[in-house]
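User: Could you write out the 3D structure of this protein bound to S-adenosylmethionine? I've included everything you need below.
Assistant: Certainly. Input first, then the structure.
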Amino acid sequence: MANKFLNPYIDQIKQFHGLVFSDDECASAIKSVKGPIHLDIGCGNGEALVYEASKDPATFYIGVELQYKEVFRTALKIQKAGLKNCAVFKMDAKKLPDLFCAGQISGVNIFFPDPWPKTKQKKNRLIQRGYMLRLSSKLIPGSEIRIRTDNDDYFLSIVNTIYGLIDELGITVTEFTRDYYLKGKKEDECITAFERIFLKQGLLINALYFNVAKPFEGNI
Ligand SMILES: C[S@@+](CC[C@H](N)C(=O)[O-])C[C@H]1O[C@@H](n2cnc3c(N)ncnc32)[C@H](O)[C@@H]1O
């Protein structure tokens, strides 16, 4: 008898052979990629991931996602688009930087990371100094990291973290705004699924984009 408590997407993602990788498969999947890799951390339903991968066939795009349902939706989009330069990792992004070699990552999107708004939860936020150092250590020098969030408190903490790393990582800020859509939608960028919801609610979208010239070389 089928277990009604079992998440149906655990089984359903098995059909996407070569598109979905679980924790223990991710390291070898990365090794098989020859060129630069662009990450979409917390890719949700994969809308932005597939949009960007379609425009940039020379780069391999990896979406990283914890939830089975979102992994399923992302894989379905990749399959329907017929993309050969895109995959989704079902894993906790906290473990992600350790899987890469230095100089493998050419760009990172972190769009609407879970905000963990309560004081006791803030330690769970992904974007913190240690994580950004670990992630930056795997970047190709000059790579861009793009962050957007509707959550003002998280944004201020992100800004503090990144501005605290400016000298160490040779950071150049290319976009810093509390209202990303003030002048309308940017050409060539995708509004993500969560972003659409937040915009409908009348929330402002914070954005911080920056380039990293000196990837971190130490140990954490
Ligand atoms: C608010 S949603 C944003 C999704 C998508 N980026 C968008 O803008 O529509 C945050 C997503 O990050 C995923 N997520 C949160 N923490 C994560 C982690 N540690 N590793 C991987 N994914 C994570 C959640 O499952 C969720 O799908």
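The chain has one domain: 8-212.
User: Perfect, thank you.
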